[in-house]
Each structure stands twice: as C-alpha cells, then as structure tokens.
Amino acid sequence: MKRGLFIPIGIFLLVAMVVTACTTTRLTSVWKDPAYQSRPAKVMVIGVAKNAQTRRLFEDEFVRQLKARGADAIASYTLFAENQQVDKAVIVAKVKELGTDSVLITRLVKKEIVKVYVPGTAYNPPPYYGTWPAYYGGSYSGGYTAEDEYAIIETNLYDAANEKLVWSAASETLLGDSNQSLIATYIGVLVDAMTYNKLLGK
C-alpha cells in the first residue's frame, strides 16, 4: 500500500468516532492523493477472497452502501464467471465497456492473533448475606489469557482513467461475529471514511 501522505488530525477524530460507535473495526491508516478532487460516479468493486460466498457478500454490501451515498457501483462477481481467469487486461476491458470511472479493490492482508491477559477479580459478599464467617471470607476469580483474532484488511481506490491509486485505507477488524455482520460493519467504517475525505456524498 502506498504510504507517505496522511490525512491530518481531522481523520483521527473520525477514527475516534468510528471506534466509539463500532468497536469491531479500527482504521489504522488513511491516505488520499491531494491532487484527486473528483468524486467517483461509477465504481467497480472487487473483493479479493478465496471463498466465493464471502466475496459476493462483501461486494454486494459495498455496492449497497456506495449507492446509499450517491455513487453508482457494480459488483465484479456479476461481471466475471467464478471460474474465469481474470487478469488486468480483462478488468480494463470491462471498465471501458461499462464506463466505470473508479475501481475499488479490497483484500485480506493477514490475520493476527493477539493475546490479552484478563486479571482476576476479588469478590466479598455483603455482610448481611450468609453467616458470620462471610465477614472473613470471600472469593477470587483467577486471571486468564484470552486470544483475539484480527483481520488486517487493505482497501484501495483507483482512478480508472489513468490507473493511479487515489485513496487507500488499512484497517483491523476483530473477528467473532457472523461474516455478514462483520462485512457490513467493516464497509460502514470505510464508507464513512470515504465520505469524510469527500469521495462520496454531495
């Protein structure tokens, strides 16, 4: 992913709001080409995924949310057969045929396991419960180590006219919910960031 120019402090306020509203996805970096002042009108959405069902869910949800923000969009799985060999030339030809002005590509970079230690807690019953030994007793729940799994995802938006990268975001998503719920949450965060960067909306 291209690095170097980052959105100023305002984007971090956006990240804070997003994290507060939905803790399963967190933006770790956002970049926009300052020379790009257009708003995508028609976006081809490409989800790079080994699982065909996950790809369809992802692309359909991105199309739905992009359309809700005023941009037309089309899922790539509706254009290419599941077993079709799709390379750059095929995509470029389809982009020209459809008059698409932008291509949005997202892919899973990797998954990470993060170990979190949860400390134990002491509990002392109120004195009016139980018998007198309760004054001297109590219980203790020992600490334990939990493992959280995160998906590190990269999303890039390209200008179809010159194939240049114009916007990019990296994110971490805590796995655990259903695929559909995670996908909707993740895409909502990305679409909010695109709107903040004046790529979507009026």
Explain how this protein is built.
The protein is globular, with a radius of gyration of 23 Å. The protein has one domain (9-112, 149-196): Rossmann fold. The protein has 202 residues and is α/β, with parallel strands linked by helices. It has four helices and eight strands. The chain has helices at residues 9-21, 52-68, 88-98, 179-196, and strands spanning 25-32, 42-48, 72-75, 102-118, 121-123, 139-141, 144-159, 164-174. α1 packs antiparallel against α4 and α2 runs parallel beside α4.
Descriptive labels:
Rossmann fold; 202 residues; 34% strand; two-stranded antiparallel ribbon; globular
N to C succession of SSEs = HEEHEHEEEEEH
Number of helices: 4
CATH level 1 class label = Alpha Beta
Q: Round the mean pLDDT to the nearest integer and report it.
A: 77
Question: Spans with pLDDT under 50 lasting ≥5 residues?
Answer: 1-22, 128-132
> Which value, in Å, is the CA radius of gyration?
23 Å
Would you identify the CATH H-level superfamily? Anticodon-binding domain
Determine the CATH topology.
Rossmann fold
* Whole-number total of structural domains: 1
Strands of the widest sheet, in order across it, are 1-8-7-4-2-3
Question: What's the arrangement of secondary structure elements?
Answer:
Layout: H1 9-21, E1 25-32, E2 42-48, H2 52-68, E3 72-75, H3 88-98, E4 102-118, E5 121-123, E6 139-141, E7 144-159, E8 164-174, H4 179-196
Parallel strand pairs: 2-3, 2-4
Antiparallel strand pairs: 1-8, 4-7, 5-6, 7-8
Helix pairs in contact: 1-4, 2-4
